[in-house]
Amino acid sequence: MLNLYVMRHAKSSWEDPELSDYQRPLNKRGKHNAKLMRKIMKNKGMFFDFAYISGSQRTVETYKYIKDLNLKKKKIKKDHYLATPKFLLKSIQSIKDKYKSALILNHEPTVKDLTQQLCSNLNEHGELLTDKFSTAAIATIIFRKKSWNDIKFGDGLLDGFIKPKDFY
Asked: Is this model's pTM higher than 0.90 or not?
């Protein structure tokens, strides 16, 4: 069995209008929520062996708050910024099988679209993903597969969806 965590970056700052979207850092609430999600993830036993992180400033910063949940390896990928679910699926399929639990840390709407396309049981949990994938939220997807290379859209089971507001 393989576990995939799909997480959206924490809340970003719009304070500096000169920065490009790619360069925007986290704001105060984003930093707070990233710390909160780290605590929640740790308490729930949500650890990952491998992580793909979009190269944007806010995703890299979000990762810094949860990086101790990564046990083995990470890759910061500039080409994951504004990537499509199909592109991210190819990245997921390239994960080495020695990693049994992986994280995709990315942006909206890609995280929502990816989760919806990967999961076959959204009729049970889909109401959680109808509007948007909240900042710093994380979806847990289980695959009854032995190899990441074998994963296709529709193969996953959404096992949980956690957002910071659930814990305020």
From this structure: yes
